[in-house]
Design goal:
The chain is an alpha+beta fold and 275 residues long. Helix content is 23%, strand content 36%. A hairpin with a 4-residue loop joins strand 14 and strand 15. The protein starts with a helix and ends with a helix. The mean pLDDT is 87.
């Protein structure tokens, strides 16, 4: 009976954690480029119940006999929470500051804690002329004109163009006649990863990679950069809501089982054992 209490209680704990993950998916469903998460449940090992007895009228030195009753589960727990990396829907916005990645890869941004990676291409130009994301973190380029040292991209203008390879061109006066031309200034630093399960989600729709895990980086094989597009979250609110309702129902069922077992245990202790 105590095993049943533990099993029902572990089921409630699991669903509470699942609800947290689903609520987070709902909260980020309107964030461009966000990735939904899923909780993976792992069952604990089953236990074989046996009945040990000597038999009626048996001598004291007679060997014991074990009669198998059956197996019983010992509950479950959250094994891990994985991030689903399927792409979200691409939507045309017409805003030149919106940049989407069709295919593989992640934008690189510079935060106070170092380089981070994101699929959120909702950028803008700050007051100093740098291309930044919605949190104000610098969008990182390859540093083509800075000795190929990756760093912030300064466009110094609201009139810039990004081609399908991520190269950034800014209109600048060129030559004696100061004719406005598209001048190549840098290229977006876009990275991909061999094992995306080694990306650790952080607040602000960002991902972190362990500093020593340099072997996980790779060049995106299937990539096209599109200016004027934005990638939506791959979390569908209606689907997450249905899963959330199912989780609440499972939690309620486990609570009813726990209550029934508790009442049965109370009767066993107070009535049967008290005789």
């Amino acid at each position: 009976m105590l095993t049943g209490l533990y099993t029902a209680a572990s089921g409630m704990i699991i669903q509470e954690r699942v609800q947290d993950v689903l609520a987070q998916n709902l909260a980020t469903s309107q964030m461009p480029g966000s990735r939904r998460q899923e909780a993976v449940v792992r069952s604990f090992p089953d236990v074989l119940l046996t009945e040990t007895y000597r038999g009626v009228g048996a001598a004291n030195n007679q060997a014991r006999y074990n009669h198998a009753i059956g197996r019983v589960g010992t509950g479950a727990g959250i094994d891990w929470i994985y991030t689903e990396n399927s792409p979200g829907q691409m939507v045309y916005s017409g805003n030149q500051d919106d940049i989407a990645l069709f295919g593989d890869g992640y934008f690189t941004v510079l935060t106070p804690d170092g380089f981070r990676f994101t699929r959120d291409g909702g950028f803008h130009v700050n007051q100093d002329g740098y291309l930044v994301n919605s949190q104000g973190h610098y969008v990182v380029g390859h540093g083509i004109n800075q000795g190929r040292n990756p760093g912030p991209i300064q466009v110094n203008s609201n009139d810039y163009f990004v081609n399908e390879y991520g190269k950034i061109f800014v209109k600048q006066p060129v030559g004696p006649g100061q004719i406005m031309q598209d001048v190549f200034i840098d290229q977006l630093k876009i990275d991909d990863f061999k094992d995306k399960d080694k990306l650790f989600p952080e607040s602000g729709n960002l991902f972190r990679v362990e500093e020593r895990d340099m072997d996980n980086f790779k060049i995106p094989e299937n990539l096209q950069v599109a200016q004027g597009y934005i990638e939506r979250s791959n979390s569908i609110p209606t689907t997450e809501m249905v899963k959330l309702i199912d989780s609440y129902r499972i939690h309620s069922a486990s609570a009813r089982v726990l209550k029934a077992l508790d009442q049965t245990l109370e009767k066993t202790v107070n009535r049967v054992a008290g005789r």
